[in-house]
């Protein structure tokens, strides 16, 4: 997209102060942890200025210089605060080594347009740092629960042993609890009993309706669509309240089928949306051709239409599955103690008897969502390829 | 080819089987419509029965009040003639009818329900009915009179004009009392009046829900815009990789993300520990990040952020980068080019994302319940409280109806601006 800019080495008056400033910022934090921010600031600035000057003399090969800086910072970290700081120190060292060369060789200029002013280049990279911070915000909570689930203590925080990477600080006991405690295994079993049935129902009904909706002359299409999508829009608490009253009236409250019915309805909008999206690119002359060659409507559907819209149907089904598997409000309202699902168990666990088993459950669920995400992404690409929407 | 005439005597075009073409086309079209409707019908009926009917039932519940008129039928009729502002208790006839009605109610075991229904409006009535239940069933009606004195002896609450005023006010089969309640008003001597200051909670709660949802939506715009921009402008390979960081939270269970925030934000949590470790916060003055509004806003911004990024991204993808370059080559500064050329084109994305995030956040229950404490909860938590704990279902239904109206108005706006057909997932 952008023309490569020829790069050139930058003068000392630019590189040394910049690297020193970065060192000063890092020094404030290290200094604060050690007791004096001001001292940290000065030491950090001075240290990095020296490193920048050595880098600019160009006596040592780049690779070796980077290793030396990384190792130096790692050792400094270890001396200051033990094993965890060794890793942080190494990361800092690696970053500063890379940063110094990046500035010195002018590599930062390489990938931006040649006509940009230095202010614009600065903004370009500041913007990326901001975006990086937002990505960190998005992903950190999910990453943090994973190591915590191996905590040997019943705490929700990192213990000293964990930070020292002492094997005694880690254990699988929360996973063992998750897999053996009947409260949790029953919850998982219930979730697995409800979600697939609800998914099957919403996929079969939803696919038929999506095919009907995608035909050209449907009276009241907009209104029907609005009704079918509404379970996704109406706040769950309202759906749950309504179902609580109505399902009690018709006597299916607290029953398995009551919960399945409710979850089916909640999954339907996702099936409708994904399948209609797949049908947008569907060539109707294919079904006409099949009919022309003597295939009945049922055969046409299973042999021609179904294979083509299958990716959409499956990803709709996965959405419906995760909706049911993750649903807690409705099941609290219309379920019964015997139908306690996994999210419900997590909800009560979080509210009352805080036990880190929740984190083990959470880690397993994150694993499941990674698998589901991969499948959906692969299906989406396959579907786009089938419909000729993306080149590869 | 057999020679079927192409036109009939009147000059109408005919189809192969000899019927007029127009008629034949209409028939085909009708059949197509019917087939489409037949495909949609099962699902539509299913959704109407298991989703729309419950919602309508809830709307009905918010005004329904048949418990009292059904179970105290004679009392209600005679009470019609009584004027609560006269300063006198109802006549003996009312008390006699009441004793009779109550006896039947007791035998059907509904008197406690009537009591707790009236208790929502005037605290204390519940115990009045419960105590009366034990005595009144022994009475010999109508020979035991006069009942006015008997009731007064039973409990002096029955000699309180206010109690009778409450019974009279709520004797109709339908009431707007729940709605008045949910906007901090009550039915007083002269129609609707505001509740005393110290009993007003719902208006505050509605306003808080709105303000916090707005705060969450604005934060989502603020954080989502740069991310969507960078995703739309990076080469597609890098963008796809970074997209995973957006989609993974989107696909991760809500409970997982909420528990993660609970872990991160507590007093001894990761955020506070890190802040203390790097010395930004003193050990004894850790930030209170959870069980308050801050906790709710942080956690919900994180949970809803993908719903902002995805629509923004799909809109930004369609904005050609050449517009920006053209603006710059015509002499615009970076800021002008962005603000006058790029930003207006991205507004549909902001609109779609904001409405979606706002709709979702206004009705959120789980996250505020777990990280919101008492100050950071939404109106939905109050609805759940009335359904599961206080059992004041009518009030819960009224609160839900108000919330539903707000959401439906936003849904309508979303449909106008974006179109529900254009909702994209992933």
TrEMBL record, chain A:
CDD domains on file: TM_PBP2
Location of the protein in the cell: Cell inner membrane; Cell membrane
Domain ABC transmembrane type-1: 188-376
Membrane topology: Multi-pass membrane protein
PROSITE patterns with a match to the protein in the record: ABC_TM1 (PS50928)
UniProt keyword list: Cell inner membrane, Cell membrane, Membrane, Transmembrane, Transmembrane helix, Transport
InterPro entries with a match to the protein in the record: MetI-like, MetI-like_sf
Domain of life: Bacteria
Family affiliation: Belongs to the binding-protein-dependent transport system permease family.
Protein name: Trehalose transport system permease protein SugB
Organism: Planktotalea frisia
From TrEMBL, chain B:
Highest rank taxon of the organism: Bacteria
Keyword Iron: no
Subcellular location: Cell membrane
Primary localisation category: membrane
Segments traversing the membrane: 36-56, 205-232, 238-256, 296-316, 347-366, 387-414
GO biological process: transmembrane transport
Span of domain ABC transmembrane type-1: 206-414
Membrane topology: Multi-pass membrane protein
GO cellular component: plasma membrane
UniProt keyword list: Cell membrane, Membrane, Transmembrane, Transmembrane helix, Transport
Family: Belongs to the binding-protein-dependent transport system permease family. CysTW subfamily.
Annotated protein name in UniProt: Spermidine/putrescine transport system permease protein PotB
Gene (name only): potB
